[in-house]
What does this fold into?
Amino acid sequence: MPPNILGSNFTLQSFGESHGKCIGAVIDGCPAGLMLSEEDIQPMLDLRKPGQSVITTQRKETDVVNILSGVFQGYTTGAPICMMIWNTDTDSKSYEEFKVKPRPGHADYTGFLKYGGFNDHRGSGRFSGRLTATLVMGGAIALKILNKYLNIEVASYTKSIGKIELDTKHIPFDMLMTERYTNDTRCPDANVSAKMREEILNARRDGDSLGGVIECVVQGVPAGLGEPIFESIESEISRGLFSIPAVKGVEFGSGFRGSELRGSINNDSFLINKENDTIVTKSNNSGGILGGITDGMPLVFRVAFKPAASIPKPQKTVDLKTMTESDLIVTGRHDPCVVPRAPPVVDSVVGIILLDNCMKSNLVPRVLK
Ligand SMILES: Cc1cc2nc3c(=O)[nH]c(=O)nc-3n(C[C@H](O)[C@H](O)[C@H](O)COP(=O)(O)O)c2cc1C
It folds into this structure.
């Protein structure tokens, strides 16, 4: 599969660079008959866009999406859907320096090595967090189909920022869904959110940045998704999640903490749900996946984001022209923490992967009614 395409039945091809003319996505394999307009996509893009609060970058990108093809008289036609956003707030000055003095923790050095200096480095080019808007374009469509036709709901939210963590175990799904967007950290608890916010502002004041963890719960996932062994549902979801810049870890269910438990504690006992005679599990340490196949319980996973690389604090780098060690002070407008902007991106990636897998399992008709 070419490197800028995600999925195999419902596919998303991402194009554009951060400070080029535009960024966009081409969706192929979308069923016909879905009522679709820009209004289905724009609200999710708005949740991701920068400049919404003091804890994100102050860039002011309006991120207005245009659908160019694949929709006729308000419905998808079954043809490729091309969507794009013009880049408007582009100030590329500070990026000239990074071509010669690569930022520690960013992709300036590896991008230069890989493409011999021909890559568009302005605004970090293809490596920019801005490109996650292309994932959201496709994600909004996938989530609409999952929601409307398969009753699948996805809720990603901020679980931790630095060392401030919310215990989400006893928060009902509906509350996670509604509370996560009531504050600017995207944490579904107002008190913990206030602490997270303070932590981000402290890091920014110190000329520094912070990382964090996004947790995602998916309800209504049918049992049987995933094609072991190489297309297990964990492999599929992880592949998508690692295409989000700054993602450095993914864990399902009890994850790394589960490795400290005994089997008798970590195993999820099977029970019968007497209300509808279905098999459920008492706990959900497997995160809804056994043997790479969904078991009908909610999917639960967490995604670790590293601290943003571009910080004003002085750092050490190498001047690639003179091949001497050098100091670097990164200027420009950057996110002190990328996590608050990422829940719609995680929702989107999971939406695309789940829809793709539902299509593999023939759960989605070619024409939606
Ligand atoms: C929504 C979002 C916004 C981001 N904004 C920034 C930023 O302002 N400054 C920065 O250095 N990195 C930012 N990043 C992360 C970089 O794009 C990423 O660290 C870089 O491409 C290197 O890739 P890697 O961290 O996956 O190795 C952002 C990531 C996301 C998901």
